[in-house]
Amino acid sequence: MRIVVDAMGTDSFPAPDVEGAVLAARDFGDPIILVGDESAIRRELAKHPTAGLPIEVVHASEVITMDDKPGTVGKAKPNSSMHIGMNLVKQGQADAFVSMGNTGAALSIALLHTLRRIRGVKRPALTGILPFASKQIIMTDVGANADCKPEWLIQFALMGDIYARTVMGVKQPDVALLSNGEEDTKGNMLIQETAQLMKALPLHYVGNIEPKDVLKGAADVVVMDGFVGNIFIKTLEAGTSTLTRVIREELMKSALTKVGALLSKPAFTSVRKKIDPFEIGGAPLLGIDGVVIIGHGRSNAVAIRNGVRQARAAVQGKVIETIRAGMANIAGDDM
Question: Is 262 found in the same domain as 183?
């Protein structure tokens, strides 16, 4: 398969983007198409052993930055690496697109200017994948839709269930609604109305779930509106970062704690690897009519490589085709 990598995506583009693409081409053997400033990309490629690797370069004259507004960038920069990369997928010249760039811009460009929605999907969902409790937990939506309707959430649930089965290999995913309590009476009107609709879906719905149980791995797919999901993800990332910093500071306070830190280093390294978002690489925009994987702007080369891995798995699992079939089974289409 052919995977497009946005070479202008990360905060430090194009160095980590190009290095990650080289790692992916070497590890997976599939053609990688780097899209962006051709001269800058080739300067970075010259720093790596690429002989025999299936890497192509497609020039894009414009760059979308993290400061660009999603609502205007679609028309303002039609020659950006995001536009050109996604159009390669739309035109059948590539199978998936991977970017660590402006998430809002990527969603806007995919939804309104290039790939569009899968027929029947009311709203696409931005997905987060959390590596907790020795499993990968799918969170959807985590930022694309701040104000949601119950019928949107049930589609998020169906798409998350499909992704868990086809890409992540979970035979019967447990699907839950994020709420402030497990009881059916808990949650706002959106959650309570959605819960009634969820019971009729062809998936294994396990009811409401609290944040503490999300981190225990009590569900494989956790559904929420984008406002709550975005706050949840950002709070979790900030909390993890703060806890790591505090532990590091405490371990450096005395000679004795420094010895303890040295002895504990293998354990800390193992824990960090298990919860490191760069080990996931990125997460899909579900509901878009093409495989689009979005990751952190601060991603390193390892994250880029793993983002390509996520894209390959989505293509191999035929996630787009399966979502199309799934949407055909539920009523309603506002397109």
Answer: yes
